[in-house]
User: What shape does this take?
Amino acid sequence: MRESVAEYLRFLKAERNMSPETLRAYGGDLRIFVDFCMRAGAIRPEDVDHRLLRRYLANLQTRGYSRSTVARRTSAVRGYFRFLTQRGLLENDPAAALSPPQRERRLPRVLRVEEIDEAEAKQGLHIYRTSLRDMALVELLYATGMRVRELAGLDLEDIDLERGEVRVLGKGRKERVIPVHDAARQLVAGYIDKERPILAANTTVDAGEEVALFLSVKGGRLSDRGVRRVVDRFFRGLEGGKRISPHTLRHTFATHMLQGGADLRTVQELLGHVDLSTTQIYTHLNKGQLKEVFFQTHPRAHESGKSGIYRDREHVEHS
Assistant: This one.
């Protein structure tokens, strides 16, 4: 079974272009599943039946894993057995009818514009070795809604400061171009001109060979983890003790775009979502916003008193 899992992971990497993080998650989930099966006496994939799979799900729930974790591990198992069946390594798919628990539908955390301004103002009171980089990095995340891996993967040639555009390589190696507003463009330009050369000088790589846009203090490409540390430090100290991640800025970008009047499909394209339903989670509005939008848009909301229908009826009744 372990050999077939390794073959499945190679398939996901080569043909599905899955990111290293996703592959690690799938690999870990499937190792846990294989260990469970072997303890139950199922050594080969054909030894697994639907009843054993139900026992595995029940075991996960009994151990207190969240619904999202159970759903993810179920998805990994279903994908694995679907792969074996499609390749003719199994005659029947025991996981075909396996239903994962519904994922918890949590609204994403969204920053207010005032909170972003507050965090940026605080940066001016501190002298970091990489303050220009951090300002440019955070503003570019908020300006574009990029995923953390997309930002960490940017090269110098990917951003066109004159045109105000950045070319992003997203999931499945799908490319998209995102506009960059002037505020973010100026910060990135300042970082490239003044601070990036200082960071680049710290590397052992020959000058000019490191093409990454955002560099670490050692002069190499800033990693995904490094980006997360920058964002966490940047917003540390916000009222309420919020822990802010790059994904928080992605949520904030999408929500602010929609609240500003952008249509859902435009935001879908900017975020690089394949499925529109993924983007729809950002359409949450509080009751006050709903009421405000209602009175701004409904044709009857601007009329005082009763509608024309009732006015006409009253006129007939009294004439």
Q: What stands out?
A: Residues 113-283 form a domain with the hpI Integrase; Chain A fold (CATH 1.10.443.10). Residues 161 and 189 are 7 Å apart (CA to CA).
